[in-house]
Amino acid sequence: MPDTSSPIMIEARGLSKFYGPFVAIADISFSIPRGQIVAFLGPNGAGKSTTMKILTGFLAASEGTASVGGLDIRTDRLRAVSKLGYLPENGPLYNDMTPLELLRFFGEARGLKQKKLKKRMDFVTDLCKLDQVLEKPIGKLSRGYRQRVGLAQALLHDPEVLIMDEPTAGLDPNQIRDFRTNIAKLGESKTVLISTHILQEAEAVAQRVLLVNDGRLVFDGTADELRQGRSLESAFYEMTGRLALLAEGSSEGGKA
Asked: pLDDT grade, residue 250 (50/70/90)?
């Protein structure tokens, strides 16, 4: 559960997103304090990415509000996103650029002065282990290295909040282990929200789990509280599969 003694860095209040009659998410509310690593868990199509995009300002909510670092993402977007690092799933990278060129480009676009930019580029290069590929075209890099470049770009301006959407999708076991190590380090000084449908990911890196199903938040607590003596897989199925069946039954009953 949220630590009320620390400042709230990510907050969603009654978030809903509608596409005509289709409900992508409905009335999602949660708050995440500084220094907490939270896994946003759910099956594919549950509404995780939609929520992430609203939190980062890429989508506007149909209802509700979202804030980062106490700043409303809709009314104070530029200041809010300055506190935010975002790593989307399959995030766009410029394939003809090298990681060195990409980091310099994004740093200058964010207005970092040369001295600070050099310091931050050195830091993220070391953290993400990019030394060996700094001058290779991004289009020639492996999936694992491309993900490292994406993380380095998200961290370049030293944000207080880091939001990542399916960050380990497509990585091999060694790459996943390295990525988790980095997340643990980052969690010592930043608020981190990771969207994933991989149960082991939530258990390995997160202090808290938010479980969404069919566009609604159905659980908020620790992985142990979600498990309740069962396997995490069983708990996940009971919270998502059973709720989905109940929703279908209710829909059919309404049609009869």
From this structure: very low
Instruction: Enter the tokens of residue 37.
Output: 């690593």
Q: Which domain holds residue 223?
A: 1-83+162-167+187-256
Mean pLDDT value across residues 189-204: 87
The number of domains in the chain is 1
Q: Is the pLDDT of residue 254 over 50?
A: no
Say if residues 94 and 102 touch (Cβ distance below 8 Å). yes
Whole-number pLDDT of residue 253: 45
195 close to 183: Cβ distance less than 8 angstroms: no
Distance CA 160, CA 131 (A): 25
List strands edge to edge, sheet with 37-41: 84-87, 161-165, 191-196, 37-41, 208-213, 216-221
Which CATH number characterizes residue 209's domain?
3.40.50.300
